Amino acid sequence: MIHSLFLINNVGDLFLEKHWKSVISRSVCDYFFEAREKAGEPDNVPPVIRTPHHYLINIYRDKIFFVSVIQTEVPPLFVIEFLHRVAETFQDYFGECSETTIKENMVIVYELLEEMLDNGFPLATESNILKELIRPPNILRTMVNTITGSSNVGETLPTGQLSTIPWRRAGVKYTNNEAYFDVVEEIDAILDKSGTTVFAEIQGVIDACVKLSGMPDLTLSFMNPRLLDDVSFHPCVRYKRWESERVISFIPPDGNFQLMSYHISAQNLVAIPVYVKQNISFFESGSSGRLDITVSPKQTMGKVVECVVVTIHMPKVVLSASLNATQGTYKYDPLTKILVWDIGKLNPQNTQKQPNLKGSLSLQSGAPKPEENPSLNIDLKIQQLAISGLKVNRLDMYGEKYKPFKGVKYVTKAGKFQVRT
Amino acid sequence: MTTMQKLLQLPVNAVNIVKSVQGVAQGQEEALSPVLTPDSGPQNWYNAVQPEELRHLRSSSFGGGGGGEGSDDRPAQEEGLTSIQSQPLRHDDLKEMLDSNKDSLKLEAMKRIVAMIARGKNASDLFPAVVKNVACKNIEVKKLVYVYLVRYAEEQQDLALLSISTFQRGLKDPNQLIRASALRVLSSIRVTIIVPIMMLAIKEAASDMSPYVRKTAAHAIPKLHSLDPDQKDQLIEVIEKLLADKTTLVAGSVVMAFEEVCPDRIDLIHKNYRKLCNLLIDVEEWGQVVIINMLTRYARTQFLNPNINESLLEEGSEKAFYASDDEEDEDKKAEAAALAKRKPYVMDPDHRLLLRNTKPLLQSRNAAVVMAVAQLYFHLAPKAEVGVIAKALVRLMRSHSEVQYVVLQNVATMTIKRRGMFEPYLKSFYIRSTDPTQIKILKLEVLTNLANETNISTILREFQTYIKSMDKDFVAASIQAIGRCATNIGEVRDTCLNGLVQLLSNRDELVVAESVVVIKKLLQMQPEQHSDIIKHMAKLIDNIQVPMARASILWLIGEYCEHVPKIAPDVLRKMAKTFTNEEDIVKLQIINLAAKLYLTNSKQTKLLTQYVLNLAKYDQNYDIRDRARFIRQLIVPTDKSGALSKYAKKLFLALKPAPVLESPFKDRDHFQLGSLSHLLNAKASGYQELPDWPESAPDPSVRNVEVIRLLERVTTLTSIPEWSKCTSRKDRKEKKVEKPFYSDSEGESGPTESADSESDSGSGSESASGSEESRSARSGSESEDSGEESESEEEEEDEEDQKKKKKRLEKTKARKAVEESAESEQSSGAEDRKRSRKMVKNQKSVSESDSESESSESEEESEEESEEESESDTDIRKKKAPVSKPPPKPSKKESKKENKEMSLLDLDDFEPAPASAPVTPVNFLSSSLVSDLEGLSLTDTILAPTTIAPSGSIKMYELLHRITGEGLAVEYCFSRQPFSPDPNMVAVQIQFTNNTNAETKNLHIEEPRLQSGMRIREFSEIEVLAANESVTVVMGIDFCDSTQAANFQLCTHTRKFYVSIQPPVGELMTPAFLTENDFKKEQGKLMGMNEISEKLTLGDKCVNEHVIVERVTATANLSRVPCGSDKECRFAGKTVSSGSLVLVTVAMKDSAGAQLTVNCEKMVIGTMLVKDILQALSQ
Q1: Overall average pLDDT of the B685-693 stretch
Q2: Contact A287, A250 (CB under 8 A)
Q3: Cβ A232–B111 below 8 Å, yes or no?
Q4: Closest Cα of chain A to B603: distance in Å?
Q5: Which residue has the higher pLDDT, B703 or A409?
Q6: Which Gene3D superfamilies does this UniProt record tie to the protein (chain A) (predicted)?
Q7: Of all helices (H) and strands (E), which one includes residue B1035?
């Protein structure tokens, strides 16, 4: 399946190579560089590139291209999904997945890659198993290792590898048994010029941090499971229970994991928490433009909208912006042509003085005025609210005697929230 | 053979050398090594191998090694080996560290070496120094040495051989991890000479007791195969053996090996098919992908096309069964097997098993798994069931952009075949300005494929915003997309054309050029009507510079010069002026234009044409010169000109067929979806063609082979007669009382379990808890369907019995086995555990699927399945001949059961079937049937009269005024009757009154312009409405639970009127009947944000609850819920299109105060409803 892997940074330096079968010369990457050149933006590099003898399947993540070499037919998603899993493992191990951390931990990276694939076929990709095989680095262990000469490599077969629950290791012990669940919902929306919703939906995930001793068997139930239209689960969740009873029953992995992601049925109207009034116009003469944006809270269920940021990708001809913000700060980067207005909190009481950004834009003189007005991307956050109304009813634990501490948190964020102008 | 001998002997020699030379200090260290060989003494013999040995080896046969290394390096290296200190070398320090006795130094050196490898630096000259550490006791050093070895062994084959014996010893290690990793590295060393050793090792490992080692063996198979394809036959034997493995751990890996080594040996799968289907959900995700892809291919060869007889299929299997003696069917299926002959199409239960077992995997977090299932459904499922994959695929659109890219490619292919599937998700394909261009273009493709008459207006509106994008490639693609919509959907062709013409005045040249090209294609379809557009384009030629666009315009003018007789010669005149400066394609079109004009209008253009041809004659491009020469001969009559010139006009002005704008994804589905070949639209190497469905199904009994084998075993089982005897119901019932069945078996197998204590304790406790849980699940199902319970219990018991028998049998067999008695004992222990665990799972699935209520179909299937199993079991017990497949039962029984379950379910999970109203006659002023029913259902007699919907209160709304309608007056009201053709629609009663003196004809609805999701079911056309008559019709509108207006045109034979119907929120619901308890329960579930509470002051007239009830029911189509307290009125309903509950409570307080509470999942509806009721009550 996967023959080789090359890691290439943003600039085009190849800084790691790993082969699972016979060695393939790194010159194969020239085809990739060619495609990269042609694509312009890194996002636009086609994920699958065909070369005379190989196929290159690549992903772009955290400013690194993971380029894998394939020789025979394989489902492309298989490879793409695996590469993302590799990146996630790096992130899990080193805190971030960047060129520097990978270079710093070259040996661990190499050991990980060796364990994750055998002859190009995935072997151990569960983080729990990997962590037993190869312990993640931390300062204390590095010190101990240098003194005692002990190693990062586990000597026994991870227990998970053999059981039917490969995601959990045996013999987990905690003094404080706790289970936290974060219900994070994101609003994906496209609003048109007049503020009407062209398209809106809610996507949610439940992230869990479970630190429970032994083999707990958890059951999570919702007040209103019918809201959930489409769900996908961590492999630990029992599908059948969900299908028949609409409860989530699972033996959790140890530590952090994403329990499920869901989609709220499209029929439910999505409450859009902010109202954006905008007017961006460019003038034919005088090479200037005007910008006027007001953001106010709308349907927020009495919660405060925080971390509101408006990002605008300006047309190339916009040279600078001289604006005045009644709240928050704005910044215009003339190089990337990105205008960022960081508003902060929206005050629900003060309806008179809504945050407003107003002023003029100066354009490159002589250039024709831009055809299209740039669209606004909005970022926001509402604590303690799941905008869909989803509520966790209860969490029950079976199989263990102790009483765990249970916590649920709700957050609503803006996902791909765009206002067309 | 000499090399082989050397290889096999060498380790022995080496060990001997070690024994003689071994230093004392080293011996001490070795004693500490717990991992490699706890029993024997000296094991890192390699340290003692003298450099002389190595040198001998190298000089004798180095040539075989792949030389990444320059030859001049070699002598230096050897020198370095003999005297490291004396000759300074590149990696001196590293070698020194590797030779030291300290592990930490070795580790450090190895880390640096591995970092070198990772960066792609050549470290092959260190091979001798590294390889001698292969037996190092430090596990991390060893692992890194393995990494190094695998990387460079190919280049240094002979040296690599020295490490082999270490691995051979490792293969016998008691620790399964060591065994596995030894096999892994051994098989990864690409040295042809060790092929026999690898083969032996793989064979041995394939029967290892540890599933992990067996998994590694499966992984090793393709490695060996690629190293030496001659071993294929032996490897296939191993694969066959491993395919029979019962553990989930092995399944994925062995199928992967199967796919690489012998994908065409489909016959190996037969016996394992059902097992693979059942294990699938527990296999790790990567294995799932491979298995699903393989099973797709398998199913294509073994089962019949479920869509072969689509019309019958849609009527359901029940009908199909009874309609079996239709002659027509007989004809169609003449060739089919005897079974199939009687019935038109009955899905093979194994086919159903596959579909059923893969479906839950659509919920996987792994995009590759979801895609694999999606392609399986696309290729294998009956048409009606394919729809389930759409939702999951749309979900993947949220994932990384690479995933989106692949998914969109596949969706694009699917949308061509099955457009309806993705139509509800149209909006999910809307494009954001932040999407990468390649994603935008794919989304555009999907949107174009999805466009049809009903949604085209929304799509076009969407396209309009895309055209303004800054991303020019995307804009061009959008214009193309508009062109394609226009060609595919005749209704919007003119609209699109007008839009595109407007784009011609766009400032961006690319946009204009692209539009010109598309317009050209569109005009070709109906040129007569659009001469003004052609004129407009002719004007554009002065400004447009893009060659392709200029060429297109010229071609258009030439082609349709008869429609623009005045302009065409003038254009030619202009072009003749600029001819020399044009691009080649433009020049060619100028010549074309000249020729065509000459033929139609030679008077005006003769000179011009000759001028142009003269210019072309001396052009630099030979194509143009050729063309000019050719055309001159053809059109200008000379005495020499041949017969052809007579036909010149026919040649040039022949009617040209309009181009068909097709999706590039058309016909891509002959590649298996989700495959690399599909993505590239070209066959990738190693791609396995997806076979066509067979004409008639191959013998399905091949998959039963397992049973026969079981039979053999069972016949030997004479020592335990009591198991085979219990056939009567009573006996079995008694058996059931023996509760601690599991714990017994666990206890039994407990003591014999292997020494791998770690895994034991884990899995043991796990399976115990699993069984406990399944028991509880079972008890749950018991209480629910008491009727079925006993039967399913029995089946389970049977299964258990059977399993247990098998176990015993195996155990006794194992005990008898002479060879490796201890190990096989262990292995049978492991098997037992696995099996019991699996059994638990099976059982669980059975009981669960019984209690499952949502999909009656799958339930039915599972029932069938389990029945079949139990039957086969009993057969074995009676020592009968192999089982023939039980014919699927007529589904009468199932349907009965279904009904029963429906009634058992609470409202929460199942929306009650819509009040089964037959087509109620349209009665204008009657109280609705619903409220009649309600009155009956209420026991509270005092309340009954008030709950009848106020008959006079149905409000009429005006749709079309008499004056604007030119005599036609239209009024409508919400009749509150269930709309029988579609329960999700609101019935709207429309009354037409013809106030004119003439007849109005053909009253009907046209061009509904709806918010997406909304649907209209039109009333049937009213053919004639006589003067001063009125008529009433009913139409259905699905407002999607929103108060958005439904816009449409009301057409008569003469006029069209734009009208819209906007429903008050109260009409978007139908009454729901709840008891007081249900009401409270439901209300409890709809707390928080779903609850809206408001205080109000009751109006003067709202003196008693009768009035309140009247007011509320007039405002909203709700039914009253009985209530103990007379201070409260409760109402319940559910929204028409989605069936969400709407609960209203009016609690009266002292004097005129009251509290209104509305609970509804749909917050917007709730808010609006509160407002309306408030208003109604406070008047």
Answers
A1: 84
A2: no
A3: no
A4: 45
A5: A409
A6: 3.30.450.60, Mu homology domain, subdomain B
A7: strand B1030-1038
pLDDT band at A410 (very low <50, low <70, confident <90, very high): very high
Q: Which residue of B has its CA nearest to A227?
A: B1161
Q: Considering only CA atoms, which of B185, B251, B242, B234 is closest in space to residue B208?
A: B242
Domains in chain A with CATH codes: 2-148 (3.30.450.60), 178-270+387-419 (2.60.40.1170), 274-383 (2.60.40.1170)
Could you give the CA distance from residue B881 to residue B381 in angstroms, rounded to a whole number?
33
Considering only residues 1119 to 1148 of chain B, which have any Cβ-Cβ distance to chain A shorter than 8 Å? 1137-1138
Contact B686 A109 (CB under 8 A): no
**Tokens found for residue A354:** 């809504």
State the nearest Cα–Cα gap between B1070 and chain A, in angstroms: 17
Residue A148 pLDDT: 58
Instruction: Give the Cα separation of B632 and B611 in Å (integer).
Output: 11
Distance from CA of B4 to the nearest CA of A (A): 23
Does pLDDT of B498 surpass 60?
yes
Taking the CA of residue A65 as centre, how many other CA atoms within 13 Å lie in the half-sphere pointing to its CB? 27
Substitution target in A17, A31, A69, A78 with the highest count of B β-carbons within 10 Å is A78
Q: Any CB–CB contact under 8 A between B849 and chain A?
A: yes
* Mean pLDDT in residue range A322-344: 89
Chain-centroid distance of CA B1142 in Å reads: 35
Mean pLDDT value across chain B: 71
Check CB contact under 8 Å for A43 and B436.
yes
Give the predicted TM-score (pTM) of the model: 0.65
Q: Residue A421 has what pLDDT?
A: 77
ipTM of the complex: 0.91
> Cβ distance A3 to A69 under 8 Å?
yes
Residue A166: list chain B partners with CB under 8 A: 284
Residues on chain B touching A146 (C-beta within 8 angstroms): 104
Q: What angle do CA A106, A110, A114 make, to 5 degrees?
A: 170
φ/ψ of B2, rounded to 5, equals: -65, -40
CA distance B500 to chain A (A): 16
H/E segment holding residue B972: strand B968-978
The DSSP code for B682 is S
> B278, B842 in Cβ contact below 8 A?
yes
The whole-angstrom separation of Cα B749 and Cα B826 is 10
By CB atoms closer than 10 A (0-12, 13-18, 19+), residue B446 is: buried
Q: Which of B286, B679, B758 sits opposite A76 (nearest CB)?
A: B679
Is the pLDDT higher at B869 or at B357? B357
Contact B899, B856 (CB under 8 A): no
Contact call for A155 and B35, based on CB within 8 A: yes
More confident residue, A195 or B732: A195
Apex B726 CA angle, B725 and B728, nearest 5: 125
Mutate to test the interface with B, among A57, A77, A412 (most CBs of B within 10 A): A77
* Cβ separation B406–A389 shorter than 8 A: no
Q: Which residues of chain A lie closer than 8 angstroms to B761, CB-CB?
A: 170
**∠ CA B251-B257-B262, rounded to 5°:** 120
Q: What is the dihedral of CA A129, A132, A135, A141, to 10 degrees?
A: 150
Q: Which amino acid is at B742?
A: Y
**B758/A265 touch (CB, cutoff 8 Å), yes or no:** no
For helices B786-816 and B892-904, angle between their N-to-C axes, nearest 10 degrees:
110
- Rounded to a whole number, what is the distance in Å from the CA of B1147 to chain A's nearest CA? 24
A-B contacts (CB, under 8 Å): 329
Residues B592, B577: Cα–Cα separation, whole Å: 16
CB B1038 within 8 A of CB B984: yes
